[in-house]
Amino acid sequence: MFLSGRGIGQLRRMSIKAALIDLSGTLHVEDEPTPNAVEALARLRDAGVTVKFVTNTTKDSKGTLHERLCRIGFELDRSEIYSSLSAAVAFVHNGKLNPYYLLSEDARQDFPPEDPNRCQDSVVVGLAPKAFNYEQMNKAFNVLLQNKEHKLVAIHQGKYYKRSDGLALGPGCFVKGLEYAAGCTAELIGKPNPYFFKGALDGLDPSSCVMIGDDANDDIGGAMAMGLQGILVKTGKYLPDVVLSPPPTALVENFADAVDWILKKNQA
C-alpha cells in the first residue's frame, strides 16, 4: 500500500539510518563508477549510515559482482550485496524446486545443482542473452506445459538495462512470452516485489531507510510502497518521461548528490 501524503511528509522529516543502494546504473555503469561515487560511498559510511547493495542484476553471480565493484574502487564486503539472485536462490531452496534454468553460466553458480533423478518442476529466468534462443525457450515452455503446478520464476522482468553503448533489452519480454505461450503467471522475485525488499531490509525499520536507484518503478516505486524513502538518480536507465506517483522523495543528478542529500537531511 502506498503511503498517504501525510505519511510521506513524516518520512521526509525522519533521519536516515540505512541506505539500500542499486548497483548498475546508479553506482556504476559496466566498469565505470558514476561521477564521484567511490568517494561518496566512503562519506556515507563515515557518517554512520548502514549500507546494503541491492540489485536486480541476474547476469552475474554475487562473487562476480563483488570482484567487479572492488576492482573499480569501491570498498564493500560480499555480505553487503543482496541481489534478486540471492532472493531467487532462497525461493528455490525453500520450495524444494528442481528448475530448468535460463541463466548465464556465472549466475548459475549461485543456485543448487539440478537433480537428474527428479523431473524438472519449474523454470527460473534471469538475464541470459545466450539462453534466449528457440531451443532453450522451447524447452522451458515444455517444462511449464507438463503440469499446471509447475512454476515460472522470474528473477526479475525488467524491460531494459543500461550498458556503455546504451539501453539493452532485459529479460521481461522473454518472461512475458513464456507466460503467454504456457498460459501461466510468473512468480516475480526481484524489485519491485515486496518479497525482495523484505529480504533486503532483513529486519530494518523501513521508515528509517532510503532506496537510491535509477529505475523509477522497480527501485523507487517498489521501495516507497514498502515505507522507505526513495531517491531517484538521473544516471543509468533514468528516463525523464517516466512519471512516478507518488513522486520520489528526492530527484538528484547522481549517486554522489544522493549522498549529499542524505547527509544534509541528517544534519538538519
What are its keywords?
Haloacid dehalogenase-like hydrolase domain-containing protein 2; nucleus; 4-stranded parallel beta sheet; alpha/beta; 19% strand; Rossmann fold; 268 residues; HAD-like_sf; metal ion binding; metal-binding; disordered N terminus; 6-stranded parallel beta sheet
Secondary structure layout plus pairing:
Blueprint: H1 5-13, E1 18-21, E2 28-29, E3 32-33, H2 37-46, E4 50-55, H3 62-71, E5 81-83, H4 84-94, E6 99-102, H5 105-108, E7 122-125, H6 134-146, E8 151-154, E9 160-163, E10 166-169, H7 172-182, E11 187-188, H8 194-201, E12 209-213, H9 216-225, E13 229-233, E14 250-252, H10 255-267
Parallel strand pairs: 1-4, 1-12, 4-5, 6-7, 7-8, 8-11, 12-13, 13-14
Antiparallel strand pairs: 2-3, 9-10
Helix pairs in contact: 2-10, 6-7
Model description:
Phosphatase that hydrolyzes imidodiphosphate, 3-phosphohistidine and 6-phospholysine. Has broad substrate specificity and can also hydrolyze inorganic diphosphate, but with lower efficiency. Its EC number is 3.6.1.1. Belongs to the HAD-like hydrolase superfamily. Keywords: Cytoplasm, Hydrolase, Magnesium, Metal-binding, Nucleus. The protein has 268 residues and is α/β, with parallel strands linked by helices. The chain has two domains: 117 residues, Rossmann fold; 93 residues, HAD superfamily/HAD-like (Rossmann fold, 3-Layer(aba) Sandwich). The protein is built from ten helices and 14 strands. Strands 5-4-1-12-13-14 form a six-stranded parallel β-sheet, with helices on both faces. It has a four-stranded parallel β-sheet with strand order 6-7-8-11, with helices on one face. Strands 2-3 form a two-stranded antiparallel ribbon. It is elongated, with a radius of gyration of 19 Å. The two termini are 29 Å apart. The N terminus is likely disordered.
